[in-house]
Amino acid sequence: MAKSCKGLAMELVKCLSETNCVKVQKRPYKECAGETVPCITSECVGLRETYFNCKRGQVDMRARIRGNKGY
């Protein structure tokens, strides 16, 4: 279960690496991940929300019994 969100994390990093926040402004991924839609694409925002829900599912006891939905 620890690696069930790994695919989402890799896609999020790939999406963020293509944004102006990382390319032009040379800011770290962590800073750019917290930005809103004008700075990063809506696709990256959607991936960030999905990744958050995946990580939250790892600590939710109900999801731990059933298993994380993963990716």
UniProtKB/TrEMBL annotation:
- The answer on whether this UniProt entry bears the keyword Disulfide bond reads yes
- GO BP field: mitochondrial respiratory chain complex IV assembly
Q: Which GO terms describe its cellular component?
A: mitochondrion
Cited InterPro entries: Cyt_c_oxidase_assmbl_Pet191
Entries under Pfam families matching the protein: Pet191_N (PF10203)
Q: Which UniProt keywords apply?
A: Disulfide bond
The family classification in the record reads: Belongs to the PET191 family.
The protein depicted here goes by the name Cytochrome c oxidase assembly factor 5
